[in-house]
Amino acid sequence: MAKSELFGKDLICSQDWRRPELDEILELAKKMKEKRFSPEYTSLLKDRTFFMFFYNPSVRTRQSFECAATELGGHAQFLEPKTMRLKTAKSAGETTEDAAKVMSRYACGLGIRILEDKISAYGQGDALLREYAKYASIPVVSMAHDKFHPCQGLADIMGIEEHLGEDLKGKKILITWAHGALARSLCSVQEAALLASRYGMDVTIAHPEGYDLDAEVMDVVGKNCAENGAKFEITNDVKEGYRGAHVVYSRNWMSPNAYHGGEFHKQEEIEKALRYTDWICDAEKMKLSENALFTHPMPIDRGHEVTDEVASGPRSIIYDVAENRLHVQKAIMALTMSEKLNK
Ligand code: CP
After folding, report:
1. How far is the CA of 143 from the centre of ligand 1 (A)?
2. Domain spanning 14-148+325-337: which superfamily?
3. pLDDT tens, residue by residue, 115-151
4. Nearest 5°: CA angle at 167, between 252 and 323?
5. Which residue in 96, 144, 258, 277 has the fewest CB atoms around it within 10 Å?
6. Would the pTM count as exceeding 0.90?
7. Whose CA is nearest to atom 6 of ligand 1?
């Protein structure tokens, strides 16, 4: 394998990377999926440790990063803020600068997850990741934060390409808000919109009034679509976006009002969202689409975000996408962190 220009690079949002850099990840992820335990890959991170710093819980991200490190011959260490003495707004402790510089002396890379109730205003998670990236001399990778989830977005695109082919121009993705009892961050849907638009898809975002996504991110999605000659629309109609869709991505997200008074108002968000009972992806709405694939980053709030019939139906690609997290992350770790590959 050839030396990569990605060696040492942080991955906080896919939009920070050029399209050929994203292609390089997807290309290697596909090869790694095909030849999962090939000796070509199994010692790329031999004797190396990847730190996984989780402020919030996870199933897929923790497990897939840990498996990725193992399959590359290395080790992933699970870290939580409660086991460290970090400085916060409310308590004295170690600064981000010191923590990042010390971690860089031990590990080959640092993944961070921070979102939902672990921040008190939208944007704080993104700012923290960028602060770690500023001081760390090892790559910092988002494992999902309040704004972006690049590993998920790359796994989504890989799954969509596996089912629709690598030329996604002229294919339409509907990213639709759904009611739910989890008050989720915007990270997965924003990343999905950024990557679908980078890869030439027509993008429709649907949500009830009052659930706007980040306006700056939506501007970028619009520009990406314009550069590719693709369509971009935002609708408040629960059904309209399904027409002509080749992929439907249904997911709950919190409203812009979720953070106020310096706190995350989870219960308030859930109570408000659960009133919109029409906003569920079901077989009747899917009939309006072009026999669309159904995707979701998981965990799914079944019965709210999507019916069992659709989530477990023949057009659902949720498990392929979940599996792709492993392959995409192996590719990211190999290309950005492996000295062996980048000699
Ligand atoms: N999609 C995703 O990041 O899943 P987890 O929250 O389980 O890691």
Report:
1. 8
2. Aspartate/ornithine carbamoyltransferase (3.40.50.1370)
3. 999 999 999 999 999 999 999 999 999 999 999 999 9
4. 50
5. 277
6. yes
7. 58
